[in-house]
Specification:
The complex is a heterodimer of chains A (481) and B (462). Chain A is an alpha+beta fold and 481 residues long. Chain A folds into 3 domains: 88 residues, Uridine Diphospho-n-acetylenolpyruvylglucosamine Reductase, domain 2; 120 residues, Uridine Diphospho-n-acetylenolpyruvylglucosamine Reductase, domain 3, CATH 3.30.465.10; 190 residues, FAD-linked oxidases, C-terminal domain (Vanillyl-alcohol Oxidase, Chain A, domain 3, 3-Layer(aba) Sandwich). In chain A, 35% of the residues lie in helices and 19% in strands. Chain A contains 17 helices and 20 strands. In chain A, strands 15-12-14-13-18-20-16 form a 7-stranded antiparallel beta sheet, sandwiched between helices. In chain A, strand 8 and strand 9 form a beta hairpin. Chain A is globular, with a radius of gyration of 22 Å. Chain B folds into 4 domains: 101 residues, Uridine Diphospho-n-acetylenolpyruvylglucosamine Reductase, domain 2, CATH 3.30.43.10; 116 residues, Uridine Diphospho-n-acetylenolpyruvylglucosamine Reductase, domain 3; 110 residues, 2-Layer Sandwich (Alpha-Beta Plaits), CATH 3.30.70.3450; 99 residues, Alpha-Beta Plaits, CATH 3.30.70.2730. In chain B, the strands form 4 sheets. An 8-stranded antiparallel beta sheet of chain B has the order 15-12-14-13-17-18-16-19, with helices on both faces. In chain B, strands 5-6-10-8-9 form a 5-stranded antiparallel beta sheet. The chains are: A alpha+beta (481), B alpha+beta (462). Chains A and B meet through strand 9, helix 7, helix 8, helix 10 and helix 15 of A and strand 9, helix 8, strand 11, helix 12 and strand 19 of B.
């Protein structure tokens, strides 16, 4: 990147808020996925005005821009696929207003998801979307990807919890859509913008809904000898229309790894567990717990434990939410998938995932949001062995294809990003893309903003993932690190 | 259009859907009139493909198309700027796929809501889309009209349970978004834009929903209060409690009289009421134990808030109450020949102020003005002029201008839902919609680049 642009960025945001040295940029070339793409500069704006100036600068020099929160996504959505300037929102992290009477919070995009809940819990409120990365991911990132989490089973993904946005368009204009009011009166622009993966506008302010904490919470751990028993239980719970607030599944192999790491008291000798949470008023929770207990036993649950107190409950959830970290101890790298299947097909889908895992010879763990059919198979591999990486990508893609073939979707909460852009053709037709492109062109006509995302570029997956750009990570060029 | 050209278009349309499904007789077309504007053709496609073909013909002919379901809500919106083809969607009906075990359903747009509800009920499920004209309205029409449901208190709006859609866009192409799984963030969420778009973005052909289990019991509770202060206090108490009711509405005295007096189980409550009383309606569901807890706590809270009267309702009575609340905007419209029904959205913290303000504007017009506040965030209000009142429009105009004076003082939006056609040209029903018009236009241009759909029916003349 021209040094002139760097100097101009420094003039806008201050020298300490601009990174341009290779050793600094390398930290921003990845997210939670296996994708890599290095920005040419990273800038940390403090205000919307800074963002506008940066966008105008980018227009002037015709360099692409990509927004980034904490970089915890699994789809490469926050990577600088086209190089250029990365706008990292980490320092726009102020909670601007807490409006308890209307159950709204106005926040900057860099506010960490869990920090919002922490700021309002004294008033009996919380921010409902709870991705596993909620202690580090930002609300801006949640808005871009329309993130979920275990409790979205009952409460919906981010778009159900956002009523207003301040946007900076790729032409530098600032727009406000929605507000604190519950309903839009025109088109539901917030509904479109949330989950548009940073391809239509940069989000600089968010009006978030705050939810009321339930009176009672019960957390159950149901232990099964086989994966089939656990998945059949989930299917039956859904069929009986029992809707817990969260219903997570962890397979036996994953559990052992987690137990070694967090010592949450998970069994080491089972096929799978379901971590089920029920919330509501005391009487409703008691009734649901009984119904869930019955279904679990019908499907041969070996044991059903109930968290005795908040501490035990938190420990169980810690086990769930740090699982991916725990697995990091077992292999140098892993590929976490995010795909969705119809819930009634959970048993067959899991059997297929296990089969494909066995065939490819790589260890595949399963830890996922079973209640809403959102699978997260995790493939362990060693990036120093290019053939392992290729195999991990191949089997992951096969799993995703299978999920779509049985009526599922490419992504449940992490977005399409770069990772699944080429796979979009599995779900969408040329007419669908034509409309998406027209909408994209209305907001981001020059493609300045987050290029190379969501839309297929017409290359095979191998080509898009295993790039040979000089900036690419050794992993992708097959050079041992 | 010349006679010859019209004949050739007719042939084209008939080629698409069959001659039995294109009508041009003025008498038939009158049924599709919107605010006195009558189309040239009524076209009834049997499939989404045929609907798309008709749209392509319309694009080619520079025709304006309005998609219609049961035509119950066509009076919502501004009169069409032009209107050539009424695209009757009622033949594209029925359930496309239903997986009760997944709690998801895919429905063709022309299916009546009531039929859908019956199919779902067989599997002990329901869709929380209890909107006006329920017995007649089609699923596609209900989404396009965007009216809300009393169940939004707990179940939210279609943004929360509409999971995918198929539609014909303004180029005549069949497009889709979302899917048939409950959690899905693949691609742009176009289906969310369709809700409340009054048919201006596309012809909805199929909708996918998340469905919900019917609880073992669903009951209600009514409490009446001497004034709105008590009623609001009760509503706030409920909000602050652990209870999560499925319905929470507040009817002004005029509205309680209008809505409840016709229904026997409530007549006694209404008869006992002083005419100045406000009524709060609460619905809740769950097991017998859960319902008992609600009834007990609601009775306690109502008493604390100074309720004059309170009635607990069993399941059947609640079903009747839900129907009354669901149809309230229509009941208000039908209460006077020249009724005007408006819808406001408000912040819960400003609900009292907004209620007070709009009621005081209405009082100065000496028109009866029933008000129903829904879920602390929506207000339906009607102005009911007396028959033959020649000053009615003047008063309406004054009222609508007065609403404008609240801008900057209160955060709210307001639109006219129903209004006599003759006044629509003089009254801008979108004046207080307060939308980011330039952004909205981008969406419209992308979806309907040729301006073929529902010309001029939406905010900003879109």
């Amino acid at each position: 990147m021209q040094s002139g642009i760097i100097a101009e960025l420094e003039a806008i945001a201050g020298a300490r808020n601009v990174l341009s040295r290779a050793e600094d940029l390398v930290l921003y070339e990845y997210d939670g996925s296996v994708e890599k793409a290095r920005p040419e500069a990273v800038v940390f704006p403090s205000t919307t005005t800074d963002v506008v100036k940066i966008v105008k600068l980018a227009i002037k020099h015709d360099v692409p821009i990509v927004g980034r929160g904490a970089g915890t996504g699994l789809s490469g959505g926050a990577l600088a696929r086209g190089g250029g300037i990365m706008i990292a929102f980490g320092r726009m992290n102020k909670i601007l207003e807490l409006d308890f009477a209307n159950r709204r919070a106005v926040v900057q995009p860099g506010v960490v998801n869990f920090d919002l809940t922490r700021a309002v819990e004294h008033a009996g409120l919380y921010f409902a979307p709870d991705p596993s990365s909620q202690k580090s991911c930002t609300i801006g990132g949640n808005v871009s990807e329309n993130s979920g989490g275990p409790h979205t089973l009952a409460y919906g993904v981010t778009s159900s919890h956002v009523t207003g946005l301040e946007l900076v368009l790729p032409n530098g204009e600032v727009k406000r859509i929605g507000g604190k009011l519950a309903d839009p009166m025109g088109y539901d622009l917030c509904g479109l913008l949330v989950g548009s993966e940073g391809t239509l506008a940069l989000v600089t302010e968010i009006v978030a809904k705050l939810s009321k904490k339930p009176e009672a919470i019960k957390t159950l751990l149901a232990i099964f000898e086989t994966v089939d028993d656990a998945t059949e239980t989930v299917t039956e719970l859904t069929a009986r229309a029992i809707t817990p607030a969260a219903c997570e599944m962890l397979d036996g192999w994953t559990l052992c790894a987690i137990e070694d790491y967090v010592h949450a008291g998970f069994p080491r000798d089972c096929g799978a567990v379901l971590l089920i949470e029920i919330e509501g008023i005391t009487e409703a929770v008691a009734g649901q717990a009984q119904a869930i207990d019955e279904v679990c036993r019908l499907h041969h649950a070996r044991e059903i434990r109930t968290a005795k107190d908040d501490k035990e409950r938190e420990l169980l959830w810690k086990g769930r939410k740090t699982a991916f970290g725990a697995l990091g101890r077992l292999a140098p790298s892993n590929y976490v998938l995010d795909a969705v299947i119809p819930r009634s097909k959970l048993p067959q889908a899991l059997r297929q995932v296990v089969k494909l895992g066995k065939e490819c010879g790589l260890q595949v763990g399963n830890i996922f949001h079973a209640g809403d059919g959102n699978l997260h198979p995790l493939v362990l591999f060693d990036p120093r062995k290019p053939e392992e990486f290729r195999e991990a990508v191949r089997v992951s893609e096969e799993i995703v294809r299978y999920c779509v073939s049985i009526g599922g979707a490419l992504t449940g909460e992490h977005g399409v990003g770069m990772e699944k852009a080429e796979l979009m053709t599995l779900m969408f037709s040329e007419a669908d893309f034509a409309l998406m492109r027209r909408v994209h062109a209305q907001f981001n006509p020059t493609g300045l903003l987050n290029p190379g995302k969501v839309f297929p570029m017409g290359k095979g997956c191998g080509e898009t993932r295993v790039r040979t750009s000089p900036m690419a990570h050794p992993l992708q060029t097959g050079v041992p690190a | 259009m010349s006679m010859a050209a019209e004949v050739s278009v007719l042939a084209k349309l008939e080629g698409s859907v069959g001659s039995a499904n294109v009508r041009t007789e003025p008498k038939e077309l009158l049924r599709f009139a919107i605010d006195g504007v009558t189309p040239k053709f009524e076209v009834r496609p049997e499939t989404a493909e045929k609907a798309a073909e008709v749209v392509r013909t319309a694009v080619h002919e520079k025709f304006a198309v309005v998609a219609c379901g049961a035509r119950t809500a066509l009076a919502i919106g501004t009169p069409p700027a032009s209107y050539d083809v009424a695209l009757d969607m009622t033949r594209i009906t029925g359930i496309s796929s239903y997986d009760p075990g997944d709690l998801t359903i895919s429905v063709n747009a022309g299916m009546p809501l009531a039929d859908l509800a019956r199919e779902l009920a067989e599997k002990k499920q329901f869709l929380p889309l209890e909107v006006p004209f329920f017995e007649k309205a089609t699923v596609g029409g209900a989404i396009a009209a965007g009216l809300d449901s009393p169940l939004r208190q707990f179940y939210g709006t279609p943004r929360d349970f509409l999971i995918g859609a198929e539609f014909v866009d303004g180029t005549g192409a069949q497009a889709k978004s979302g899917g048939r799984v409950v959690k899905n963030v693949t691609g742009y969420d176009f289906h969310k834009l369709l809700n409340g778009s009054l048919g201006t973005l596309g012809v909805i052909t199929r909708l996918n929903f998340r469905t919900y289990p019917i609880a073992s019991a669903r009951r209600g509770f009514l409490a009446s209060f001497a004034d709105e202060v008590g009623a609001l206090k009760f509503v706030k108490h409920i909000g602050a409690s652990a209870l999560t009711p499925i319905v929470l509405e507040m009817a002004s005295p005029e509205s309680a009289g209008l809505l409840f007096s016709q229904y026997a189980p409530f007549a006694s409550l209404c008869a006992a009421q002083d005419k100045r009383e406000w009524t709060v309606c609460v619905g809740f569901e769950g097991s017998g134990e859960v319902c008992e807890r609600y009834a007990k706590e609601l009775a306690r809270m109502a008493k604390q808030a100074g309720a004059q009267n309170a009635v607990a309702m069993h399941d059947d009575q609640f079903a009747a109450l839900l129907e009354i609340l669901r149809e309230a905007p229509v009941t208000m419209r039908d209460a006077a020949a020249e009724a005007v029904v408006m819808r406001f959205t408000a912040l819960p913290s400003q609900l009292a102020d907004l209620l007070r303000a709009v009621r005081s504007f209405a009082r100065s017009s000496w028109m009866t003005a029933p008000v129903l506040a829904r879920s602390e965030c929506v207000i339906y209000m009607a102005l009911l002029p007396r028959a033959g009142d020649e000053t009615a429009f003047k008063q309406l105009d004054y009222f609508w201008k007065s609403v404008g004076s609240l801008r900057g003082k209160l955060e709210f939006k307001g639109t006219v839902v129903f209004c006599p056609a003759k006044w629509k040209a003089m009254l801008d029903g979108w004046e207080h919609a307060n939308v980011e018009l330039e952004m909205e236009r981008r969406v419209k241009r992308a979806f309907d680049p040729n301006g073929v759909f529902a010309r001029g029916r939406f905010v900003g003349g879109m």
